[in-house]
Amino acid sequence: MAFKGQAEYSVDSKGRVAIPAQMRKAMSPAANETFTITRGFEDCIFLYPMDRWSSIEDEIEDLNMYDREVRTFVRLIMRWANEVSLDGQGRISIPNPLLDLADLDDSALILGAYDHIEIWDPEQFDGYLNEQPDDYETLAESVMR
Amino acid sequence: MAFKGQAEYSVDSKGRVAIPAQMRKAMSPAANETFTITRGFEDCIFLYPMDRWSSIEDEIEDLNMYDREVRTFVRLIMRWANEVSLDGQGRISIPNPLLDLADLDDSALILGAYDHIEIWDPEQFDGYLNEQPDDYETLAESVMR
DNA sequence: GGATGATTCCCCACATTTCCCCACGCGCCT
DNA sequence: AGGCGCGTGGGGAAATGTGGGGAATCATCC
Question: Which of A39, A94, B69, B121 could form an SS bridge with A80, CB 3.0 to 4.6 Å?
Fold first, then answer.
């Protein structure tokens, strides 16, 4: 089942953020309540359930490490990656470096994005939406054909 | 069986709206009385029965998430998406963010639209109709050839 | 090597929201 | 005229998000 929906939750003083119950239910039991959290695209945080992440690792496995660009990309993505598990209250704690990267302070926007979950600083996400040149209807036309 | 017909129903204080009985009957049992509700085009709400929605997810699955436009589109559609089920009275409850998006207050227009159901604010729908440059006959000529 | 301090992790408790169930009234069909 | 189906409204119980405290772990300094 895919991740969908959005929520604006608080980031407590310990860097913890709740994952919406509906997204927790969308996780495969194979993921074992565990995510790989890493740097996302466009200054947000990506959260892959463990089972999905392993298929990304397979993609990386197939890359040619003798290519300079590949090496750079692998460094950039793996450097931020961490395993995090849900606590008894359905929260994860976000590593400090990622909190800085995503510019998170006391409030976080949690987005379901099909195969992963995204965590944004709310203002950052507003800014991202505003810089998009095309509206929803136009994007749909060009992407879903 | 396709969704057809229209109805203007009330939205109660809890954000619940009844789905017309004739549309409920048009649902496949495979949908399990469950919809995926999401942002529609032109500021309305789309309601896909679960079985139909899964084929949309299949389309999304095939998209390349490393493409910027794709990411934006997936964020825009999945962010508003939610699973909702009919309660014992044949109603669904609409998530607050979608109520705002569609500008719904106390009354909603339910439209059958072949493979999905649409929910509009009545005034919003009037405005939409008035903006259309072409009349019914002209549209038919250009679309149905 | 041991003690101290900080950090992380896990558990418990509260308040709010959400969900599910029950009840009413109107209209249509029999 | 009665019954059944349908849309509308409200109340109670369970689930969900939020905050804090204490124990275990790790690193640091003496």
Answer: A39
For residues B96 and B94, give the distance between their C-alpha atoms in angstroms, rounded to a whole number: 6
In eight-state DSSP terms, residue B46 is E
DSSP string, A11-45: --TTSEEEPPHHHHHTS-GGGTTEEEEEE-SSS-E
Mean pLDDT by groups of 10 residues along chain B of 145 residues: 90 93 91 93 94 94 94 95 93 94 92 94 94 93 91
Residue B30 DSSP code: G
Token pair belonging to B3: 């969704």
User: Chain B neighbours among A 117-136 (CB < 8 Å)?
Assistant: 118, 132, 134, 136
Output the CA–CA distances (angstroms, integers) from residue A56 to A2, A61, A77, A120, B143, in the order listed. 16, 9, 11, 22, 42
Q: Of B29, B25, B52, B49, which is closest to residue B37 (Cα–Cα)?
A: B49
Q: How far is the CA of A75 from the C1' of C18 (A)?
A: 44
